[in-house]
Design a protein that fits this description.
The chain is α/β, with parallel strands linked by helices. It has nine helices and ten strands. The chain has a domain at 9-92 and 162-237: Rossmann fold (3-Layer(aba) Sandwich). Helices cover 34% and strands 26% of the residues. Strand 7, helix 6 (174-185) and strand 8 (190-195) form a beta-alpha-beta unit.
Length: 243
């Protein structure tokens, strides 16, 4: 697991809420994530995980409460937060006619990265995400596992301090899941990753934040979760995947 001896808080929510009319998507979420922690954001489909992540990245404005990344309130510092964060949404957009190399060059230029620095970072993320064998193949021809790794390389390109990943192993076969897990564990970043697959959690995360119907119902280590008998009946009633 990652070393998170630093006490610096990199992600923090206070009373974070999102309402759509009478519908409560997220309500009164309070949690914090320290530098270097890998935290699994767990809950059944529709629990509010993606909505929370979109508020943390500035894609959605909260109805109430605050979200902070690297000590900055997201709502008032969207550009600065965007430079410090890497966001991998579920089924993130990739230009299928491009190759991984042209895509990384394109987004490096979009971020106004200096040519030498851009080339250095493309080389580094290519190695980090094991893309060497497919660097010049059209993305549309790649397996889902490789496409996910291309997306991961893209969000790592600008060396963000914080990574937010929405279902990073969704739809992958078992071998691809192992490769993505290995990549995530080797990044050494502060990471919040959502999943509804229980098996994912001890394999990748130092800590768990569990929500249901937009509300926090558990926070602790994977071991703590196993020893929480009050949640047994809850898990049995959910449509969460055990494997």
């Amino acid at each position: 697991m990652s070393d998170h001896s630093s006490s610096e808080i990199m992600i923090e929510t206070q009373g974070l809420s999102k309402y759509y009319g009478d519908f409560i998507a997220v309500e009164d979420l309070n949690f914090s994530i320290k530098q270097g922690e890998v935290v699994a954001f767990l809950g059944p489909n529709g629990a509010g995980k993606s909505t929370t992540m979109k508020m943390l990245t500035g894609y959605l404005a909260p109805s109430a409460g605050t979200a902070k990344v690297c000590g900055m309130e997201v709502a008032g510092n969207r550009d600065e937060v965007a430079n410090r964060i890497g966001y991998l949404p579920e089924n993130g957009p990739l230009y299928e006619e491009m190759t991984p190399l042209t895509l990384l060059n394109f987004f490096g230029d979009a971020r106004s990265m200096d040519g030498n620095y851009k080339a250095k970072r493309i080389s580094e993320v290519t190695e980090q995400c094991a893309l060497g064998t497919v660097l010049n193949k059209p993305i549309g021809k790649l397996s889902r596992g490789f496409r996910q790794r291309v997306g991961m390389a893209n969000v790592l390109l600008h060396e963000p301090d914080v990574l937010i990943m929405d279902e990073p192993t969704a739809g992958l076969d078992p071998n691809q899941v192992l490769e993505v897990r290995k990549t995530i564990k080797g990044l050494g970043k502060t990471i919040l990753l959502s999943t509804h697959i229980l098996q994912e959690v001890p394999e990748m995360a130092d800590r768990i934040i569990l929500i249901n119907q937009g509300r926090l119902i558990f926070e602790g280590t994977p071991e703590d979760l196993k020893n929480e008998p009050s949640l047994d009946s809850w898990f049995n009633s959910q449509t969460m995947e055990a494997a």
